[in-house]
Amino acid sequence: MTDPARMVPPPLAVVAGAARALSGADAPAERLRALCQYLRAALPAAEVRFRAGARRSDRMAAGESPVPPPSSLSVDIPWRAGRSAVLEAVDSPRPPAELRPILETIAALLATVLPALESEEPDDAGVVSRLHRLTVDSLPVGLYVVDRAYRVVLWNRKRETGTQGLRRGDVIGKRIMEVLRRQPPEVLQAEFDRVFATGEVRVSEQDVHVGSDVRTYRTSRLPMRLDGTTVSHVITIGEDVTETRAIQRSMHQTEKLAAVGQLAAGVMHEINNPLATIGGCVAAIAARLGTGAEPVVREYLDIIESEVARCTNIIDGLLDFSRAGRAGGIFEPTDLNALLERTLYLLKHHQRFRRLKVTCDFADGMPPILGNGERLIQAAMAILLNAADATGGNGNVTVRTRVDGQTAVTEFEDDGPGIPPDALPRIFDPFFTTKGPARGTGLGLAICYGIIADHQGHLDVRSEPGSPTVFRMTLPLAAPEDA
What we know:
Elements: H1 11-22, H2 28-42, E1 47-53, H3 56-61, E2 72-76, E3 84-90, H4 96-118, H5 124-138, E4 142-147, E5 152-155, H6 157-161, H7 168-171, H8 176-179, H9 185-198, E6 202-210, E7 213-224, E8 233-240, H10 242-289, H11 295-324, E9 332-334, H12 336-347, E10 357-361, E11 369-371, H13 373-390, E12 396-404, E13 407-414, H14 444-454, E14 458-462, E15 469-476
Parallel strand pairs: 10-12
Antiparallel strand pairs: 1-3, 2-3, 4-5, 4-8, 6-7, 7-8, 9-11, 12-13, 13-15, 14-15
């Protein structure tokens, strides 16, 4: 089935389409009406409104509510003294974090052209020129254009304020290989040559170190034909897709967990029955043979009994795993600090946890979260036992809590040897473990991930060999009406 979200035009296409709607040859009112009609289809939205008129205080005095409905998002349009303008979208499926930058960019376009649209004889050529210039500068992506001599002919505002911070006046007219130095000049030139030669769009991604952070950038190179036939220029668009890739990885992980959970729910009872039969038969044979059994027979029976017990433990883990992704149990306002203290108390005498040194750094006055206490204890316990295994049972573990916006953040830090880079992307995969077959089933962290996802939260990990490992658990705070 096609994902509906993939059918929605990207923000860049929406802004470009809005600029085309405003640069039409119709009367000003028709252009604004065309803009609203276009946005209704492109966002999409149940309604898109452009409101202009008296000052906000005058509208409030007339009884107009200043608060938009909960399903709408509006942005102000700078105009002139005594006049106000608002662009509003109602019932758009796009998340506010994506919708607001789109509306703000289009509002900036409107602020530029509204004076011209108001005049009795607007300068259509000037309006179109300003629209095109402002569209390029308002885009939330870095954009530049090079000609066949590799000279930069256009460099937008985002490129000036990006990580390299190169001003337009310093790069226009220069060869792109003299401007950008993250790649060898011959490699960069070869990328442009392929677009000039084939006329095909080229897309690539690369990780860039920005201070202590690593950001992922997607670069798209598009052919441009001024005469309609030969590729005369190449448009390059650079986008920061770090958050997008993180969301995609999270969604992919959730989908994997859901699939394995469904598989587990379907087979675990069928496997439990024959295991119980085998275990019963082993016990009956051992009782009948008594002490007179040959040593080798006794050894074989012990092996069978041990393996049956190991399979039973795996099935029990699958049972927990299948429940982890299901919204069961009572969700109620919960004191996160008290929950973590209870978890540490339960682990106090655990054999794997007994010799660890645990330090608590809990924020004071933490607001409650909405969750199921027992399942969250199970998740926290899985992370802490994993830390105990990582440190060999003799290390240091620090548990911290804090509030970050509308979420409660818990960090579990251990001073173990760190997670190898090749294992880090698979750390939450079901049945993946670095402990060996005799020490774990590889389900503990997968179950933990499912529990946190079921609470509308997120679990991630930061680690590298030789450095502390930090598991970060983020959970939404309880709403005031729940608390």
